[in-house]
């Protein structure tokens, strides 16, 4: 009997009993996820948040394994061994395209990590050779599931929806690592609340409150952890570093940096292997070299990140008037800060519950179906919302500086 | 009122109310500890073990804060604000000299991380300027405490003994991160079991079983986590990489690698700032570059580490005869593996309870003192022990290889 | 130094350092709380819910101790040692008037447990002698605090409001005992979110989400645990037993039962000591004797409770029409069930957040005050709501019985 | 599909999928276990220890379910559905014969709870009718398993040995309820360490340390919780109450007490239904009536228990000389305490690891078997040991009493 058991702080034990899935874990492109933090720059806010996407991917796999075990026992689905492998492999590999501090790269380069996930699955030879051992279509089907092409609608919604194994694992794992209780919910019961009917996944009507707890836990994780102003400010800093490096390259400067990063910044990625070589050790090492670069802006920004002298966040209600922003930029310049890299505005979106397109469907004992938001007043309040934030060097707000009064009056005017 | 509160997965909250100590946290040399894993290569065995020395250092500080609060309430010691700061600063900074995968460096270069801790405290200008704000002697006194020079014996034993704030924090933190219960013990009660008398720390006789639990938890962490054969094998791999790089440099080869690592390998560290620039991102990036080095041994070893193709551990009872080892090395060579880098023997020491020199003293209500080992039969069994292990590439044991039978017969002969 | 430390599953350790408060713990009227379950009949739904009001009272005391420690450090209040003792004693004794399955008694006899709390504090000689050792007014002031007479408004709101030490402890304790995560929230942070200003307690505006989490945890505990239909059905059974016994007494029957219960049922309680002798062992023993009573109704109901053959709950949306209820009662009679004891309707109130009268006030750094519901959309959805439930013997719904179809058609008509 | 899921604080969820086993849960004799505390009088030491034998019995069942699932997957045993039911039913019912504060009754009456377990299984009509539905031999086979008659040796050792589902559940449950970490161990891993070979259960040699942790956790639970002097003193008090009541009956006194207790004390139990009616509510009610009995000794002892004025424990090293005890008894008499009920000596046995007869066998990958104690030095130190303790009213040690000096000099002489 093939069996590998991994000790896990969230699920206690993670079990592999299919050699194919274990082979996927041992592919270099997957091992690379050990060098990508699950929560990006959050470790600068919550010092416990050092857990990796590797751990989360294993956890998403284990959650899928338990979900399928439940659905098989209770609903007789899935029975097709290939579909089961597809579901488990998709859970395991869904994040394989994440890069270092992923969201910052997406913002700077305009490429989604999902696209990298699809490319790696299709193009990485080591990964491909494992997947092709199933059959010629398996890698492609995996990408189809991840792209939600509706060939395997039930599996797809377990992989990517408002109630998927990805979220189920990461909320518990992020809560555990940071030490907060905000993300906790009743996992075993939530899994048992799922039901399969005619090709789709539903939540049993009687488990309404269990799903409410899960969605509210998600809300609290967003407002308390994921969108913490210090974390968003750290992301902004990483983005500004990358933008500065990109701009310098575009200006023809020769900037010392690891080759995989240069390729990414120059959008020269015909070969996916360059991307796979890019992990957080490479990016942090790039920041080390930037911290010794002659360009004062690049050097200063990199040092700020490495030594955690982060931007100050100013949370704003409503949008920032164009004039205000212009005045802030002028003042920054007057204080010696290049506004393109030192005055940043970000809109943060709290996702809430999204009824459009892909709501969660409740199904009662009589087969009646309704959207979760119809049944729950609480959930109806969780409409997606946004908040605007301004990020500046702390020095610009320091009363010791003669111009800081002007900055403060603009920055806090929106209140 | 000055107050900074950090959320922590072990102690719930970590509290700073002295601006001096908070200033120490914000020194670059301390922030660097975010980029050093607490458990070195253990993340390759327990995927949860990604927590940093930064988090542990904060936890050791918080534990010291609670110990001092207890002793002040119950024993009226310490009262001197400078001694309190000394104790707290020592707890915070005790690991500041750790390098990436620290123990492997110590083994390769023969320099203890403690020496780096002392040098950084004395030589890092940013750290020094904070410490000197207390008084001219403070930095030096800190080093004296860490060196156990017996000027502050009670503080010293709280910082470094068999029952110190370092171990109290790391056992709980390592247990929490890996998800095992082996390292758990009753922290609050253990703290209350401490007492101060006439310049020394004792354990109250009535709390014998609480200390037993703590020492057995430590034993289990060693046998189950710290000395896990897969982890030791990962350390061996790192060591062999570093030794190979060092050997190539000594042979006059020009090996591309980050400057701080070159300085360390060449023992060219007159300036402590080079050492401070060396963290795990730098080392991992070095491994990335090694993985593209023309030297086949360096390249192969680096790839093994990055892709987690680790050495196979063979645990042995008793010592390995010299002849056996020689034969193994010859066979390795015949199989195409340079024995200096592919056949490694390591002796692992399980520390147990050490009665010599620095045993724990119990003190009963009548002031009678005895060594812990006199009172506890259980503890007397925890004598330090050692175990020998052999590490080889998995290929050498693979039955598919014609020479593997010989390797196996030697490797497993000791049983 | 006086110090008593109790090990606690919720707060780890509970600390007494005031001999007066410890003396209160050792008064028989307080020890009696060991024989009263915190969650009444919930143990019939959640088998873990066996924890006592004794444990909860200690926990409320410990929570108050931590709240006061925080407020003293941060706001310089309270400073008066008598007020501190008053707050701690009130937290400790706030539930001393609870009887066995308290809420059922309140419903049957129309006496609130709060009145018993006040009487016991004022009339129990052992308790009184401890309290009078402070001063002549102390016992009376304690009752004034519990009655919220506004002499000590800040203490009063910490004892009894929507954010008091009572709820803070019981939510965590009930969650821990039952094993559900619904009631978890960030206690330490919630405590630090409290602030004192000009005689009142406020929540800091910046901690809005921490209070949201706490109030939503409360909501989930109500819908998932406190108002669980099986639990409410168990309460109904206890009530019907007590009503039947009361009715039989009123009819002049001589029913064997423990004397304290007879006194309570006959409302013959001029002496509070009778009430103090009434605990759950006495009531359960009464049920044992009822289970051998010649009256078939009393006997049957008592056996149902002891052997957990509970009433079936039928949850209804909207109110039950008078005609339906009349028809149900007639049918019950025809099936051999006396409708007064076997057909019960209960309205359950989910408390939500109550803005009227005693809302929670947020206070920002500039001293601006607003009601929590103004700041939080989520909280505004937590308006108190009610749900009606019908409780019947399972046999009445059993398809095997010829009349059950009629019962079912009425019972489920409201859907 | 039949499925009942119970929420549990230890195992998260307890699953029933066999209607027969669920029917056993609903038998009155099993529901009665809700009214028996798992840890007897320990709640007087650890206020969290209110959990019931009902909860523990469910937990032992769930642990057995998981053990069997593991063994079936890995070893292909058991396959016989009847043997599986036997194992699960035995786990569920193994404690059904426990009475209130069981160990005190065993001591006073000389009847083991195991005998009651066997009688109830064979004689209780409701239970019997469920069991007989399997087959005529099932109830008898159940008793044979519980008696370890070696017909089902593997099942028997899972039910009752040094590594059985009983201990696995109660250590975790008792640790969780009291809030101590002493009893924690790696349950899932311990279960996976079990293996079945040729009709017997073994522990895999490679899991040595996992069993060590479990056995040491057990040691710590004994020294810190189960044999806590305050708990043993509470047991002594219950015993002395029962002995006094028995003595008074023997002297022909008519003592008011519940009938089931009278029957037990008079050894008049031809019908097992009397025993089933005896639970902790009945015993506590008896103590309430004793607290109003004219006999001053019975009254005083009962009040001491109800109001927690417990005996003072004096822990002794070595045996108490006969002369000392005689002198103590004389002094007690002189102080007005009847020595038969107020001077009690108890020997407490710490079980340790028992190699004789039923040691745990390790089995390595090559099939070599050895006793656990051969492989583990730690375990060899866990030899059973005993400790003698003397219990007296606190008043006898009170310095205010003129004779207390003599008591103290005798009581503490053994040190």
Automatic annotation (TrEMBL), chains A, B, C, D:
Gene Ontology BP, a term: dGTP catabolic process
Alphabetized UniProt keyword annotations: Hydrolase
Domain HD/PDEase: 49-180
SUPFAM superfamilies with a match to the protein in the record: HD-domain/PDEase-like
Gene3D superfamilies associated with the record: Hypothetical protein af1432
InterPro entries membership: dGTPase-like, HD/PDEase_dom, HD_assoc_2, HD_domain
Superkingdom as given in the UniProt entry: Bacteria
Protein's name according to its UniProt entry: Metal dependent phosphohydrolase
Lineage: Bacteria, Bacillati, Bacillota, Bacilli, Bacillales
């Amino acid at each position: 009997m093939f069996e590998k058991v991994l000790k896990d702080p969230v699920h206690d034990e993670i079990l592999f009993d299919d050699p194919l899935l274990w082979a996927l874990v041992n592919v270099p492109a997957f091992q690379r996820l050990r060098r990508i933090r699950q929560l990006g720059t959050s470790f600068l806010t919550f010092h416990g948040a050092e857990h990796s996407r590797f751990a989360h991917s294993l956890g998403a796999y284990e959650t899928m394994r338990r979900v399928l075990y439940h659905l098989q026992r209770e609903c007789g689905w899935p029975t097709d061994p290939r579909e089961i492998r597809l579901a488990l492999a998709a859970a395991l590999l869904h994040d394989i395209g994440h890069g270092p501090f992923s969201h910052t790269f997406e913002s700077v380069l305009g490429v989604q990590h999902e696209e990298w996930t699809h490319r790696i699955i299709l193009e990485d030879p080591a990964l491909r050779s494992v997947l092709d051992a199933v059959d010629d279509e398996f890698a492609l089907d995996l990408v189809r599931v991840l792209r939600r092409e509706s060939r395997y609608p039930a599996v797809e919604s377990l992989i990517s929806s408002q109630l998927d194994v990805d979220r189920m694992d990461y909320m518990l794992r992020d809560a555990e690592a940071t030490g907060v209780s905000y993300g906790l919910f009743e996992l075993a019961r939530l899994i048992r609340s799922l039901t399969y009917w005619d090709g789709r996944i539903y939540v049993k009507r009687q488990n309404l409150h269990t799903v409410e707890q899960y969605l509210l836990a998600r809300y609290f994780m967003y407002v308390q952890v994921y969108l913490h102003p210090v974390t968003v400010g750290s992301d902004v800093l990483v983005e500004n570093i990358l933008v500065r490096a990109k701009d310098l390259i575009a200006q023809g400067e020769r900037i010392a940096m690891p080759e995989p990063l240069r390729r990414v910044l120059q959008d020269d990625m015909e070969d996916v292997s360059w991307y796979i070589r890019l992990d957080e050790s490479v990016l942090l090492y790039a920041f080390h070299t930037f911290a010794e670069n002659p360009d004062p802006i690049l050097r200063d920004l990199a040092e700020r990140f490495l030594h955690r002298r982060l931007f100050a966040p100013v949370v704003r209600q409503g949008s920032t008037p164009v004039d205000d922003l212009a005045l802030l930029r002028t003042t920054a310049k007057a204080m010696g800060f290049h506004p393109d890299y030192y005055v940043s505005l970000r809109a943060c979106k709290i996702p809430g519950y999204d009824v459009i397109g892909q709501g969660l469907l409740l199904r009662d004992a009589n087969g009646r179906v309704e959207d979760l938001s119809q049944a729950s007043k609480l959930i109806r309040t969780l409409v997606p919302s946004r908040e605007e934030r301004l990020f500046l060097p702390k020095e610009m707000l320091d009363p010791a500086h003669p111009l800081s009064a002007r900055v403060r009056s603009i920055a806090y005017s929106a209140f």
